[in-house]
């Protein structure tokens, strides 16, 4: 029976994986997350998800039953990746750019075993209503956006900013559950409904 290792320190990914009834261990290792020159956002998230899974699997040694799950999420506006905010001003500038507009959230999920590596990318579109400077300042003061891609958490306070979502809510949070369950099944790992 395969043993699943989550190559992420994200509490949101832990919660989402637990939500679908999959037993797993945390095994997260740091990787270089810098965007390569000329790298497209879709290629970036796919590369990082694959790298996270591969690095975690390699560090587990020769355990033939090990399967590592890596994931990465990026917020994209006008073809540009909006990373985690550097500081208050960076966060407010990012949220002002998202205000009243539609942006993409790309989430890649990769599974790696000693036999194979498979990856899927999900694209969701998120539309924000217009946001006031007072709302943005209050949101920053809440502490929520400090470590979030694009400077917001849809599952938290920023849920009130979202006018419309087309795609996968769980992917915007950090792990596309439908695609993840399909990949896990391909690797012989059952979710709750398959037990």
Automatic annotation (TrEMBL):
Positions of the record's site feature: Important for substrate specificity: 12, 73, 155
Gene3D superfamilies listed in its UniProt record: 3.90.950.10
Q: Which reaction does it catalyse?
A: dTTP + H2O = dTMP + diphosphate + H(+); UTP + H2O = UMP + diphosphate + H(+)
Task: Name the UniProt key words of this record, in alphabetical order.
Answer: Cytoplasm, Hydrolase, Nucleotide metabolism
- What positions does UniProt annotate as the active site of this protein? 72
| Keyword flag Cytoplasm | yes
What family is this? Belongs to the Maf family. YhdE subfamily.
Question: What does this protein do, in the record's words?
Answer: Nucleoside triphosphate pyrophosphatase that hydrolyzes dTTP and UTP. May have a dual role in cell division arrest and in preventing the incorporation of modified nucleotides into cellular nucleic acids.
Q: What is this protein called?
A: dTTP/UTP pyrophosphatase
Native source organism of the sequence: Pseudomonas xionganensis
């Amino acid at each position: 029976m395969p043993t699943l290792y989550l190559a992420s320190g994200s509490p949101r990914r832990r919660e989402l994986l637990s939500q679908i009834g999959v037993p797993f261990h945390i095994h997260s290792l740091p990787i270089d997350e810098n965007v390569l020159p000329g790298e497209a956002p879709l290629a970036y998230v796919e590369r990082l998800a694959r790298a996270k899974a591969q690095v975690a699997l390699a560090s587990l040694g020769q355990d033939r039953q090990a399967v590592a799950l890596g994931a990465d999420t990026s917020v994209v506006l006008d073809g540009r990746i909006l990373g985690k905010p550097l500081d208050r001003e960076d966060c407010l500038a990012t949220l002002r750019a998202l205000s009243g507009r539609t942006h993409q959230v790309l989430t890649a999920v990769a599974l790696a075993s000693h036999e194979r590596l498979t990856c899927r990318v999900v694209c969701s579109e998120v539309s924000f209503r217009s946001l006031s400077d007072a709302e943005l300042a209050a949101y920053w003061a809440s502490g929520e956006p400090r470590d979030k891609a694009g400077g917001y958490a849809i599952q938290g306070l920023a849920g009130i900013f979202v006018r419309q979502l087309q795609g996968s809510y769980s992917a915007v949070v950090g792990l596309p559950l439908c695609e993840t369950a399909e990949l896990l099944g391909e690797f012989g790992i059952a979710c709750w409904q398959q037990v």
